[in-house]
Amino acid sequence: MIWNFKRRDLGCKLLLSFLLIAPPLMAQAASNGASSSSEMPDWQIEAGSKLAFEVSTIKPNTSNDSAQVNFTLGPGDAYANTGGRFQAKNISLLDYIRFAYKLSDGQVEILLTSAPKWLASERFDIEAKSDNPAATKNQMRLMMQTLLRDRFMLRAHFETKQLDTLAMVLATPGKLGPQLHPHPPADTACSSVMESADNSASELPHVCGALVNVGVPGAASRVRIGGRRVPLALLAAHLGEMGG
Question: What are residue 68's phi and psi, to 5 degrees?
């Protein structure tokens, strides 16, 4: 993905460009290694065509206040319907881009190698409203893409490139491990709302579509994660980030 930024600074217009490699599951690379500008991730195709907020307000934030959002902006599917409202305070432009394009931490690290420093340091408050009160999280992402394009002059297009990757495979072919189970389609026991309380290490978190640290009793330095209705692509991305 190629990003172009136009920013007014001391009366001058500064054009910034940097490259972000598209997710490996976005599309199959051409056999000759050529790139394509027409590819886009499946989630974006399923969310629909270009969408936009009905109204939006953006304000710079130079305070030291804590960041606030009315739903989690991570790449997972965890989402509590907000009636079409998006509210975020003291969030960096980098995190808005991360949300809009559903970037993993690994992709953000690639982006930061060539991105301007102000992308992560300058913060903004955004309040916006969709005319669709039942807008999904991915539809909210598309609306944020439009807002970034119209208000921050962000320009982006997708490219496919061939890179070396690691494969996550079963230790025993055809057999899942004792703590990995397909999520039953009829299971409604989990919630779309992220919990503030810590989960017991003996049970899975109740939230759907997100990975949560469930802790390891007596070993604070160890990490134990759990989740319900989590795509394996999200698990693979998370493991890659943990391993660097």
Answer: -140, 135
